Amino acid sequence: MKATILFLFLVSASVSAQEIAGSWSGILDVMGNRLPLIFHISKTDSTYTTTMDSPAQNALGLPTSKTSFAGNKLEIVATGLGIFYQGTLQGDSIPGTFNQGGIPFPLVLRPVDKPVLNRPQEPKPPFPYKTEELKFTNEKDNIELAGTLSIPDSAGTFPAVVLIAGSGPHDRDETIFGHKPFLVIADHLTRKGFVVLRYDKRGTGQSTGSYPIATTQDFATDAAVAVEYLKTRREVNKSAIGLIGHSEGGVIAPMVASENRDVGFIVLMAGMGEKGIETTMEQNRMALELLDMEPENSERSLKAIREMFESLSEWKGTEADRAALRDRLSQLWEQYPILVKMKLKKDAFVRDQFNAIATPWYRQFLALDPAEYLQKVKCPVLAINGEKDTQVLAEKNLEAIKSALDKGQNYRYETKTYPGLNHLFQECETGRADEYGKIEQTLSPDILSDITFWIKKQLNN
After folding, report:
1. What rounded mean pLDDT belongs to the chain?
2. How far apart are CA 222 and CA 208, in angstroms?
3. How far apart are CA 415 and CA 454, in angstroms?
4. What count of other Cβ atoms lies within 10 Å of the Cβ of residue 102?
5. Is residue 130 classed as helix, strand or coil in its secondary structure?
6. Residue 323: pLDDT over 90
7. Which residues pair with 87 in a beta bridge?
8. In Å, what is the CA distance from 290 to each residue of 93, 137, 337, 423, 442?
9. pLDDT digits (tens, 9 = 90+) for 205-258
């Protein structure tokens, strides 16, 4: 689910001795492989935020958790990726060290011009509505969540929506590959008369807390707190608050709605209906297909992967557990074709996969059964998927969602598969993740209009 990523940069421009805001590039030399990386640093008042690009992997706009700059020393942390960069501004360069997974690499950054990505749907000010930067508190976990509230610029109260992001250290716009889908959704809905709350996930952007140790259940408590916050706002119709969740957010929305009858409706965008282990196995199956493995080898690898995942249900984190997991990963690497093994070094593969799989989030996700929550949801549900989604397969998951709702005797739902759309609901060719950043469209307009129409229909019933 969560991939380890390395990054990059090019070009140059002059920079004042004490100014760090802008785009900075450098090249990592990892065992003879030159990997470019770009940091885009921005400053609001006294707060710095950073996004990262890895052009070689077509990974653009990746959010980081923390950026600080004091005494000419720059620190950038991306906890979800296991990345830490520290350097010192010296004239027009920043010599420093890039650390990922505990392994340090020298990295010298130099200023560059930020590439202009054509994202025609991204809204630009002035907006015909009000926006407010705010913070609200998850008192149970002592976490402060930072977000943006957009409010129609007219008198009265309005229906409201909380946007819940998918897996990964997402900011409030769910920034991914240079796209800002939650900004586009918030803009569209606010223009149509909704209050919309979107927020940085815990440990990301301006929200406090620790992202690396958080689980799906933790993110659900944050979403529940967001609902409670909306109920305190005078602009919000308290009887018309709903949730829109994308990917993992499409699992979190039923988790919240199953316990809170104040949630009036939920929209699941590429949400799971199958168990976490089944979704993850399907993703591994497709990944092995891209390696052009022989069917017999692929099936053997999938069997080993499933056995490894199932063994994590008994995980206690002992040294014996950790050694057994490393051993299983080592055996898995041995099954790969020789050409794959030449590109994928064994030690790095075992280390990176171990660091991802052993996290609380991953282990809880494998055991997660969305049906457990969907069966308890009593409010109206809209579940939609892209037909070319390669991360959460449309037919299997929509059928599982319908089955769970029927079992819970909730018949107030609609499901729809959109031909030609991917996991991000973009019009696409292959549906694979390496295509996301190449597509100019952020969201199909049909998705925006259909979601709006369906929500208004529920509110008028």
Report:
1. 88
2. 12
3. 11
4. 9
5. strand
6. yes
7. 74, 96
8. 39, 44, 12, 18, 25
9. 899 998 888 999 999 999 999 999 999 999 999 999 999 999 999 999 999 999
